[in-house]
Amino acid sequence: MTHHRTKRATTVLLAAVLLAGFQGPSLAVPSLLAPDPRAAPDVHAVRASGTAHTVDLVSTADGLTAPATTRPGLTTFRASTTQPGKGWIGLARLTDGADWNDFLGALSRALSNTPSEVPQGAKDLDATAALLGGLVIQPGLPGSFTQRLSPGRYLLFDYLAAGDAQPRYRWLTVSGGAVDQGLAPTATIVSRNVPGVGPRFEVRGTLRAGRPLRYVNEIPGQVNELLFVKIAEGTTEAGLKAYFDALPDDGTLPPDSPFRSASLGSLHLSTDRSSVVQVPLESTRYAALTWSKDATDGLRLVKKGLFTIVDVG
Q1: How many C-alpha atoms does 31 have within 13 Å on its Cβ side?
Q2: Quick one: which H or E segment has residue 15?
């Protein structure tokens, strides 16, 4: 990959994630725990107990702090940021032989605001890495997510710093004895294709303020995120649909936004991956949505119905 192409890719990615961040002045059932990222999804209900195995991630004006090693098994990543515009830390496992530039280029094209770039970018990304979630957080609003790790090397990276001259990323080596403790969710949200309808979010269980939830991406060939933004009183599904229908494809936003908070939630997951996420949601109404593009045609998934209104208790 040439230096020129890498620089262009980072610019495209930065524009995409900043759009998601602009969408606001910004997730008792058995625990459904995240799958091994090298295996089929774990759909068994397992109860988390004891002291969680944790990894701390801290983003400041000076950089990203993260450990270089951890143990395999269920791992809870606790993340915080003190600087606006930094600190949306994602987790990925790259295929053998792929490096940072390969990954960044593929991810940038898969998230591009240019629809024609997205289909091939999605294929390149699928061949380059498995996306294992992460956190959309804000200063003063930290979060956590649990993922099952197998031995090997993983990538922790800041979506919001991808276009910087010195992008923030760290390699995480997983080795040693396994652990099996993590966050226990009260609800599960699944993104999936509904035959004859299109992509939709399905909510199972009860969303609770400040409690973990599990996010599962079941859409074939599609990386996807799950974001929550507070909505204005009286906002309806029909009103949200009208707003999303008016969104142009170039990333600009129409006026009169129905959103009343910054985004919080889970960063992108590859198909058939899951993550247990805890962010500081309040007891109110939110729009659950994604700014991801359809891997088949590059259009926004919210235009195709991948959003819903949820009540957090």
Answers
A1: 20
A2: helix 3-22
Q: How far apart are CA 136 and CA 268, in angstroms?
A: 10
DSSP E strands in the chain: the ranges are: 54-60, 63-65, 69-70, 73-81, 89-94, 129-136, 143-149, 152-158, 169-174, 179-180, 187-194, 198-205, 213-217, 224-230, 264-269, 273-278, 285-289, 307-311
Contacts of 5 (CB under 8 A, 6+ apart): 105
The whole-number average pLDDT for the span 192-206 is 97
Asked if pLDDT for residue 88 goes beyond 50, the answer is yes
Of 133, 132, 77, the closest CA to residue 265 belongs to 133
Sorted by sequence, the CB contacts under 8 Å of residue 36 that are 6+ apart come out as 42, 148, 149, 150
| CB atoms inside a 10 Å sphere around CB 39 | 10
Q: How confident is the model at residue 52, as a pLDDT?
A: 58
pLDDT of residue 255: 80
Using alpha carbons only, give the angle 53, 21, 255 rounded to the nearest 5 degrees: 155
Residues 257-266 pLDDT 10s = 999 999 999 9
Q: Which of 118, 158, 113, 84 is nearest to 16 (CA)?
A: 113
Contact 81, 75 (CB under 8 A): no
Per-residue confidence band for 256, with pLDDT thresholds at 50, 70 and 90 = confident
- H or E element: which one contains 9? helix 3-22
Distances in Å between the Cα of 80 and the Cα atoms of 56, 83, 138 are 8, 9, 8
Mean pLDDT of the chain: 86
pLDDT at 135 over 50: yes
